[in-house]
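Q: How would the structure tokens look for this protein?
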Amino acid sequence: MKNIADGPLASIIITNYNKSNFLLDSLKSCLKQTYKKKEIIFFDDKSTDSSLKKIKNFKIKNKYKFRIITNLKKKKSFATYNHISAVAKSLTKAKGKYIFLLDSDDYFHHDKLKKIVQTFEKNKNFKFILDQPILKYENKEIKKNFRYNLSKNKWPKFPPTSCMCFEKKTLKRVLKKISFKKFPNLAIDFRLAVYYSLVLQEFFIHKSYLTFYRQVDESMDSKYIKYRSKEWWIRRYEGFEFLNLILKKNKLPANKGVDFFVTRLLNKFLNI
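A: Here is the predicted structure in token form.
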């Protein structure tokens, strides 16, 4: 891409549910991107706080051009599927060649779009790029370094949803493959990482730290305390169930490692 102004359109999909305290930081980080050929789609998933009022007032007051989609009726009662549905609905309105996902409590570095789009354009075979997250705490920031790691038991390790960027055509196909209306604890990022890494064998992690991943107590992941919470073991078992379902559908060897059997045994012991 010789000139940044000549690049393709990039679509940012911001998904929000009751994040009124953070969503303007998220939106402003998108508006201030150095890469200007972009569109912003803000999806509010029937928030019960002041999110929708705040975002509409901000748009009117500042005369910014971005799209607001409001979901008036949720399909499922569990948050993970609602999130998948929000992305899918937003994707039908997106016009960009590349899709950037952003949770409304996170925000982007001002050069994120420019660096990721340049990487896509220089590597035409890339369909899925992740950048590195900066863990944002109230009083500190910590850079977390991910490297591509597909372990022997086929369990991908990956940055969070807001670090995920996609070529749109492929993403539309993959979403249909991973949108099972079950596995209530299994978030969209794990589902996408499994399919792209194991089935498509597409998994590129950019070296730059371009996403601020906010650490808040009320986040969706706050109840999943590694090894120590019942919810964590439930989610991990759902992860294996999903992973093996995807492997089976694509005629790939199932996961039968020690980790799988330990997780299954503990779920039975906990009467899950």
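The chain is about 35% helix and 20% strand.

Helices lie at 23-31, 51-62, 79-91, 112-122, 168-178, 188-199, 230-249, 258-269.

Upvote if useful.
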